[in-house]
Every structure is written in C-alpha cells, then in structure tokens.
C-alpha cells in the first residue's frame, strides 16, 4: 500500500492543477490569466497546452479518473471513519516522524487521506468484482498462518538492535528493553506488545516472516531489517493452525490481501471499474492516458 500511496501523493498537486485548467476549453479560457511578466502574460489555455506536453500529465489524468470512477461506484462503502482509522495507524507508527514521512513521500495531510481512500475504494472494488473460489481457499490453506501476538522493539539502527539481542541473551527483561530502546511510540510503553495476521498491512513482510518462524518464548537472534529501521521480535502467543472450515473467513481475507498486492490483478479490477463507469477522455492529446487499462480488459 505504501508504494501506491507514494505515487498518488507525488501526483496530487499536478492533478489538481490539471482539473482546474481542464476548464480552459471555454470561451473565457483564452483571456484567463495565470501569471504576467514584462513581456506579456501566461493564460490558462497556454499553460494547459504546456502541461499536456509533460510526460507525467497522462499519468496524472489516469490517476484522477481512476479515483473519480472508484468514488462514484463505491464511495458509499468507504466511510470517513475507515480513512481516519488507517490515517491514525500511520501516525502512531511513525510518531514524531510522521510529518517527515509525509514530506519525504510528497504528501500533504489532505492528499495522504485521499490516497488512503483511493486504496480502500480499490479494495472494495476487488471484493465486488472478483470472488474467491473454494479451490483458491484450499490452496491458501496450505500456507495459512493464524493471528499471533508478539513483543517487538523497533530501533533506528542495526547496532542498537544487536545490543538489545545481547541484553536479552544476558537475561534482561524484554518489556524493560522495549521502553528503553524502541522508537515505536505506539507500543514501547506496553512492552512492544502487538497482534497481527499474515494479511496485516501494519508490518513489513520481513517482520511477519521472521515472527511466524518463532515458537512461544523465542526471539529473533539477529536484527530484522524493515522499512523504518531494525526489529527485535519475541513470540508471545503462536496458536495452533486449527481446521480449514473454522478458518474460511480468515483465508478469504488472505486471498484478497494477496490479490490487492498483485499489480496485474488490480489493473484488471480498475479496468473493469473504468469500463463500468463509461470513462471517456475527450481531449485527443490525452486520449491514450488509459490505454494500458483498456488493454487489460481486452486480455482478461
């Protein structure tokens, strides 16, 4: 999800400008002035013409149309509360570094919320347009992992994580070490305790893979590299797998989570949404902005 959010953030400002200037195809457009200089002026029409020359403009338009189509089709299924919950989870994850995270990825607070909403809308579309079969559930069962509870200590550098592991080997308390060393403000005061499933988006795949290899009471013997630092993980509760029938709901969620990370699957889903919403580009210079999605529908 972070990669998709990053792309959306970088395009937000240009997208807004393109929408504003798309109204230039009116009688007033040629006289609407954007800026002036000693030798003349820049009109909305001339700026729009220049924008269309940019290689990124078609991508901007495609992203804008995708968002609009998704919102029109499934907007009622994504609440403000759902967006806020995801937004707040990022705030807790990054703590005092949250503002830096937004800046480094080209977001304002508003554009970040819209990016979250776009991803939630995409997930709704996926579930509406693509159904999970029983054979797919059985395939997912082969590698299914139940929800686990762990303690973790997130450090900004590998040396600190190694020191934590050394302290643990010397018999020091994990909870105390979490309060001392962890930079995860959401969990450090609770001994680094957290629960997650294999489909959780709150942790890197490297984190989850390392955690699921642990037995109750064990901790990682070397630092685990994640996006924002290094982790030391201790398994608190790794329950038994259970039966296939009792885990069908979780398995379905796992399959959808896997599909949501598959760019080919999501491209076909978005293609279908664009087709269902009868999205058409009127400007001939930008008319091929959605061609990759049209091709995806044709191949599906």
TrEMBL record:
It is found in: Cell membrane. It is an enzyme of class 5 (isomerase). Its EC number is 5.2.1.8. It is a lipid-anchor. Residues 1-29 form the signal peptide. It holds the Pfam family Rotamase. SUPFAM superfamilies: FKBP-like, Triger factor/SurA peptide-binding domain-like. Keywords: Cell membrane, Isomerase, Lipoprotein, Membrane, Palmitate, Rotamase, Signal. One of its GO terms (cellular component) is plasma membrane. It catalyses: [protein]-peptidylproline (omega=180) = [protein]-peptidylproline (omega=0). Plays a major role in protein secretion by helping the post-translocational extracellular folding of several secreted proteins. This is Foldase protein PrsA. The gene is prsA.
């Amino acid at each position: 999800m972070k990669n998709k959010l990053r792309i959306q953030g970088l395009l937000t400002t240009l997208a807004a400008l393109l929408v504003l200037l798309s109204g230039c195809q009116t009688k007033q457009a040629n006289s609407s002035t954007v800026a002036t200089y000693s030798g003349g002026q820049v009109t909305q029409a001339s700026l729009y013409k220049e924008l269309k020359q940019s290689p990124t403009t078609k991508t901007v338009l495609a992203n804008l149309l995708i968002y609009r189509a998704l919102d029109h089709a499934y907007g009622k299924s994504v609440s403000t509360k759902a967006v806020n919950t995801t937004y707040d989870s990022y705030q807790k994850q990054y703590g005092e570094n949250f503002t830096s995270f937004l800046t480094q990825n080209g977001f304002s607070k508003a554009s970040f919320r819209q990016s979250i909403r776009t991803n939630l809308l995409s997930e709704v579309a996926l579930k509406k347009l693509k159904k999970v079969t029983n054979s797919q559930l059985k395939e997912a069962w082969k590698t299914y992992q139940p929800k686990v509870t762990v303690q973790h200590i997130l450090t900004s550098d590998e040396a600190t994580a190694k020191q934590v592991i050394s302290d643990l080997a010397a018999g020091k308390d994990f909870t105390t070490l979490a309060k001392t060393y962890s930079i995860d403000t959401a969990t450090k005061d609770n001994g680094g305790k957290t629960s997650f499933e294999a489909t959780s988006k709150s942790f890197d795949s490297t984190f989850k893979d390392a955690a699921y290899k642990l037995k109750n009471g064990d901790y990682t013997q070397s630092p685990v590299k994640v996006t924002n630092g290094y982790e030391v993980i201790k398994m608190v509760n790794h329950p038994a797998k259970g039966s296939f029938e009792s885990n069908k709901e979780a398995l379905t969620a796992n399959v959808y989570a896997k599909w949501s990370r598959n760019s080919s699957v999501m491209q076909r889903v978005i293609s279908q949404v664009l087709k269902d919403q009868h999205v058409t580009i009127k400007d001939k210079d930008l008319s091929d902005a959605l061609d990759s999605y049209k091709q995806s529908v044709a191949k599906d």
